[in-house]
Each structure stands twice: as structure tokens, then as C-alpha cells.
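RETRY 2/3 - previous attempt timed out on the joint model. Re-submitting the same 619-residue input unchanged.
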Amino acid sequence: MIKFSFTRRSAGEVIFDVVVFILCLFVFLVIAYPLFFVIIASVSDSTLVSRGLVIFYPKGFSTFGFHEILKDTRIWTGYRNTFIYTFGGTALNLALTLPAAYVLSRYEFRPRRFLMMFFVITMFFNGGLIPTYVLIKGLHLTNNMLVFILPFSVNVFNLIITRTFIEHSIPKELYEAASMDGCTHFRYFFKIVLPLSKAVISVIGLYYLVAHWNDFFTGLIYVRKNELQPLQIVLRDILLANQVFSQGAGAGGAAGGYAQRFADQVKYGVIIVSTLPILLVYPFVQKYFEKGVMIGSVKG
Amino acid sequence: MDSLQTQSSTNIVKNKKLSSSIKRDYQLWLLILPAIVVIFIFNYIPMYGIQLAFRDYKFDLNIIKTLSGGNFRGLFYFEKFITNYLFMDLMRNTISISLTTILLGFPAPILLALLLNQIKNFRTKKILQTTVYLPHFISIVVMVGLMNVLLSPNTGIITHVLSAIGMGDINILGSTKTFVPLFVLSDIWQHCGWNSIIYLAALSSVDPQLYDSSKIDGANKWHTVWYIEIPALIPTIIILFILSMGNVLNTGFEKVFLMQNALNLPVSEVISTYTYKIGILGNQFSYSAAIGLFNTIINFVFLYFMNTISKKYSDISLW
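RETRY 2/3 succeeded.
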């Protein structure tokens, strides 16, 4: 009898579970529905979409938007540029961050504390927009592909995450044993530390990748040449400045009414096309998120 | 630069400890050197250029001389900014956007983490987590573009929903009243899930014995949330709150800039967008550098102030 009453759910607990369920459903719908809507709107008749008739599934199936995107050379130039900047940038980011993190994780390296300070200070102080702009202009990096790759290629937050990971998850005895056998730091770093750090490399690799892919600021401030602009700048022209069609703007003019009807469909399509690559990487890295954020929160 | 290098090499000769460290650990130095160089060039050299805020800008082929500026003007450019007719508007807009973001945006991930933590079914939890983390990876341009199509007057789906419940007669995208709520709510929509990860991790480290013993003491689920889970989150909450106060004047340039239009400009012009317009578009480098420095100083004062309060009352602090 006692056991029975112990497991029986009181009215309060039932209410609790119902509240939890309703809130979860609410959160799920609020976040998932807009994303779902973009997908169905991109393949629906744009007149039906603009009248608010497309709600749960595509209506008047049409791939006009995607055809229009395939024809648009601006998008493809942007895509190509962003690919170069993202892969070149992330490769450089990792090539700089991982060795530095390894060095900062070595307890016996005396200048470690000082170097750590050197890096951490930049998280709280910076020169600000104008001195940075003057410097980059002075180095002739404006209107140059390198501006997307070279400046700020070490993110101190990612550096600390990586350092903490190496410090805590690779046993100290491993280095002692290896160095006894005459293993140098170079060899130890490449042969032992890197293969054991896959989890943290995935996480900071994703952080860097997403930062490059979504970088809009660099193109806006430092680049005037259209052929160097990344995807995000092209997206701004299409989504926000309403320059949907490469020949002539989406709004206004005699053909404007016709064009505007289809402009929205192109916009939905562009949102999907530009976000897809990131979403493809996401599931592979997702299992490391919690770990990555946790390591980052450990005080440096 | 040449003189800098010779100076640093004489320093090394003087400092025997350092030179022996370089000899012994030359491999470690080689591994960290590229990162030091990049940080020095792109983070420290601009700090040297902060003096532009106190001097006239004077172009020179030598970049270091350009960053040192020309004639010393003292606080002239700061005075120019503070006496500018836009100053009060800029301050009011910046503070109202960032304070609303902190007040509403800060508790949201905490509540979400407490909610997600209640889900016992592993698969349901996983699906919900995957969904709520997802918007974090959308770029700001796409995010603002998404808002523009979903909220566009006459054709947006959310506008249709709002007019169905009798609230459709305002243009959400181009109104001075809706700018701040839209900015903050869309921010919560995008980042609330991602920001909840750290709280979820803190909740998963709660000792399971606490739950068991509380049950024996007759606690129901509301009690466990209130007396076990929220107290477990307090240290994380305090640290993150101090950090967010340090950004009180950083409204995030990109999103505000992209959401700006002629109709909402009276409430959407903030310090960072003004700095951009004056400096990059208007080429008034010194004036703009002074505004940027003003912003940084206020942020630091807020951070220091919050940290001191927290240190005094809770023993939790950043330094």
C-alpha cells in the first residue's frame, strides 16, 4: 500500500507535466514553423503565398524561384568567393589556433602565463573600428581576398577552449613517456595531440566555419569590388535592398508588379540555398556541442 | 618596425632566462609564434591607434605614423560628440536596445534550460534540442531577410496571422514602436536555444542524490525546480550576467544596421551604426575613433561596476 501511494502521481505533478508538455510544444512550433514555412513557400505559387493561403503544405507547385537563382551569376560569384574564404580561412584558423593551444597547455613552458595574458587582454580591449580600418587600409588589404582570411585569424575564445581541452583530456603521463623515448614537441603535437583532439577540433572548426560563412561585416567595411564580395553581401542586396533580379530592381517600373510577385519566391529560395551548406555540416558536429560549450565555460 | 625588432633582440640578449627558454623550447616557440604575430598585428597595433581619438588624422605612407595621428587635439572630438544634437538620441537608443535585450533575452535561455531538463524521454529531448539550436547558425543577413519576408505588410504570413486577430494595422518593419520589441524577440528566437546549452550542462551536473533525498522529504516537481535546479544555476547565471553587462553599449552593429530603414531610424540609430557612418562612409576618422573609444570606456565601467558588486555580495567575480 505504501509503495502504491508513493508512485501515484498527485494532481500537482500531473499539472506540472501538462504545463511542461504545452510549453515544449509551443517552443517547438515557434522555432520550427518559420523554418518550415520558408521551405514550403519557396516551392509554392507566390500569389497564394502572399495571400496567406499556404500554411501547412506547398500549393501550386513551382520551382520558378530556384530557376531564377540558378541563372543569377551574382549568387554564384558570391558562393564561389564564400567557399574560398570559408575553407581558406578555417584552414588558417586551425593551423594557427591548434599549435598555439598546445603550447599554452604545457605546464612546464615558463612564459605560458604571460602569453596567456597577452591573448586574453584582446578579449576585453580592442582598438575599435577606426584604428583597425586605418591599419587594414595601410596594409593594402582592402579590396583584397586576404582580408577575409588573414586578419583576426586567431579567435582567443576558441584558443582557450582548445587549450583547456588539451590540458584536461590528454593525460600528462603521455608526454612524459613519449619524451623519455626522445619524442620532440613537434612530433608529439602532430602524432599524439592532434589525433586525440578530434572532438575539440570539430567544435572550433565548426565555430570558425560558421563565422566565415556568415561574415557580412568584412565585405561591407573593407571591400568595394563586386567580384570579391562574399555571399552575404549578395544576399543583402537580394533580401533587403530588394534587387532580386540582376537586370533591374524587383520593385517599381511597368514590369515591377509582375516582378514583385515572383521576387518573394526568389527570396525564400535564396534563404534556403545560402543556409543549406551550414545545415549539412551541423548534424555531424552536433554531438560535440555540449562538450564544446562546457570546456569553454571552465575558467581560463 | 626595424628599430622595434633590434630593440626586442637586445632585450632577449639582456634577459638570459628568456634566451635559454628559447633555446630549450624552440619548438614550442615556433608553434606559438604565428598566433602571436597575428594577434600582435591585428589586435595590438590598432590599440596603439586609439590615440587618433585625441589627435587629427593625418595620412602617411608609414602605417605606424598614420596611426599616431597629427596635431594633438585633447578632448576636442569627445566634446564634439557630447555636444552633438544626436548625442542624447544615440545614447537613449543604444541603452534602450541593449537593456531590453539583457532584461528579456537573459532569462529566456535559463527558463528554456529548466524546461528542457524536465523532458525525460531521450528522443523527444534530442529532437527539441536540435530544433532550438538550429537558428543560431543562420546568418544575420538571412535572419533579417527572413523577418522582412515573414512580416512584410500585406504579404507576410505573420502579418496575416496578426490581422486575423485584429492587430494587423501596423507596419512592424517600419515603425518606431515595434523596432525594439522586434529586435529583442528575434534575438531570443535565434539564440535562446544555443545559450541554454551552458545552463543545461550545469543542470546535468546536479548530484542525483539530491533529487532522491528531496523526494523522501516530500518535495514535488515544483519544489525540485525551485530548491534544487535554480540554486544549481546561480553561479553560472551570475558570471554570464556580469559578462553581458560588459556589453551594455554593444548592440551588435550588423543586425541594427541591417534592420534600419527610413521609417525606424529615429529609434534605430545607435552608437555603432553612427560610428560606421561618420568614420567609414564619412571619412571623419578622428571623430569616429573618439566615439568608439567613448563606447568602449562606458562598457568597461559597467563591467567593472557589476563585477565589484558581485564580488562584494556573492564572492563570484571575473578577476
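The radius of gyration of chain A is 26 Å. Closing ticket.
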